[in-house]
Design brief:
With about 120 residues, this protein is α+β, with helices and mostly antiparallel strands. The protein has helices at about 25-40, 75-85, 90-95, 100-105, and strands at about 45, 55-60, 65-70, 90. The longest helix has 13 residues, at about 25-40. It starts with about 25 loop residues before the first helix and ends in a 17-residue tail after the last helix. This is Oxidoreductase.
Length: about 120
Amino acid sequence: MRFRDRFGLRKNRGSSVTRFDREATDADIEALIAFARSRQGVEFFVEPETFATDTTAVAVATDGEWTRRRVGSPQVIAKVARDLGLPVYDVQLVGYPPRMRAWNERNRDRRIDPGSPGEAVRS
């Protein structure tokens, strides 16, 4: 069976793969889409690839709830955002929205499961 590159993860992949991290998968992209569809006012913030981590995107809702997933490249999340009609920003240019920090403060004592798609994740 031939692999389908549903979200363009392989096509838009840079020339190198981060050594200590796994690559983005369709499940990562689907989790961001599910989060965006189930919350109001979602915006995406792209985080650059680092030596240890693939390119990621943080989806932040109006109330500040957020989730982070690997996306492989900025082009992948840009396409997802365009398809959903949502804005996407480069976090290095605009920073994180204050509502995200406020949400973290309000939910500091709440147990968060980073393995659950659609659940907020703190890093």
